[in-house]
Fold this sequence. Notes:
Blueprint: H1 13-20, H2 30-38, H3 42-59, E1 68-82, E2 98-116, H4 118-185, H5 191-226, H6 250-260, H7 262-282, E3 288-301, E4 311-314, E5 317-323, H8 331-397, H9 403-438, H10 446-450
Antiparallel strand pairs: 1-2, 2-3, 3-4, 3-5
Amino acid sequence: MSxxxxxxxxxxxxxxLVLAFAPQAQAQSLMEMYDAARGYDAGFISAKAQFEANLxxxxxxxxxxxxxxxxxASATRTNFDYRPDVPNPGAxxxxxxxxxxxGTGAAAVTLTQPIYRPxxxxxxxxxxxxLQQAAAQYEAAEQDLLIRVSQAYFDVLTAEDSLALVQxxxxxxxxxxASAQRNFEVGTATIxxxxxxxxxxxxxxxxxxxxxxxxxxxxxxxxxAVGLSNAKPKRLANSIQLIKPxxxxxxxxxxxxxxxxxxxxxxxxxxxxxxxxVNKATAGHKPTLDAxxxxxxxxNVDGSATTAVPxxxxxxxAALVLNVPIFAGLSTMYRVKETVALEDKARAxxxxxxxxxxxxxxxxxxGLIAGxxxxxxxxxxxxxxxxxxxxxxxxxxxxxxxxxxxxxxxxQLYQTKRDLAKARYDVLVTTLKLRQAAGTLTPADLQxxxxxxxx
Length: 455
């Protein structure tokens, strides 16, 4: 895995300023909105900060195997006041009271190099896995942002198309209502046709209100996702052209997900970290061995307790420090049991991640295949619905069909158009979801979709 392909892909300052101060009437592409979201989305920024924290945490494990150097220093001022209980001036040397003020300075530099510390080496190996796990978490956060921005982007386009089609249907129903009223006034049609048309018109009016509100909500969601005010997504340049279906079979995608999915890699690394945690706990029963080298000295200013003569004392030393645990109150034994149970949990989590990812990959794969087929089916249904509407209009004009036939054909046609528009957008998002499930989704995968938008 190449970490530099996804980590810290920052939005250039000039691009951010252009997006922030661009006229609101100008539409933005999917890539532009994703770049804006990288610098705005709180969840993604949080994931980036978490990656940096995990990176620092992983590097902390070096402290257990590298040398530790410490400097200790002290300065003491002593008032020496000697008062014998039985003074004897005639003794040799004479035992008499004495008082003296003197200072003592001491300093030592100690280097400790761990030689045998099983727990420290297990923690160091854990650090490497923690770093890889942090990278997988960051990659998963980036893929999640790609999906969320893309979904919000095409949700707006879907809502715009739905509202436009409802308004077109309302206009068509209004024309049919006017026609029914004219026919009723001249006596060539019954009041039933007028009431049917009025009911469809009222329904279309209610659907227009709902569609307008849905579009408003979808636009607010897109603004929240990308951090722009009144974000306006570019539309598809050619509604007929879509992405191509995958050439590989579903098993190939599932196999790819087992090696590339960030979720599986996180779970696998979590299992390895848990196994090393067992080693750390077991190391509590093992001895440790350190090498220590120390160089220190003491300076007696104005003498010491035994002499009034100033002096320097140097005491370099080297030692091997062996620590053998004997009894720790059963804490080590129960710590081992705890880590073994957590290792079993991590193994089950890893297996669950593999199964869940495989299922998500299959779901996205078959969803994409079905979506592409559904688009073709809706295109055929649209042509058939248009032909049926034309035939019913012709039949109504010559008195063969009644008004409700035309209204039903109109409703079927516009519902098919809405379903077709949504199916096209769903296919584009499902393409990204398939790559996310397989673990291969990158910002570069937005470019083929971006190329389908209006220039």
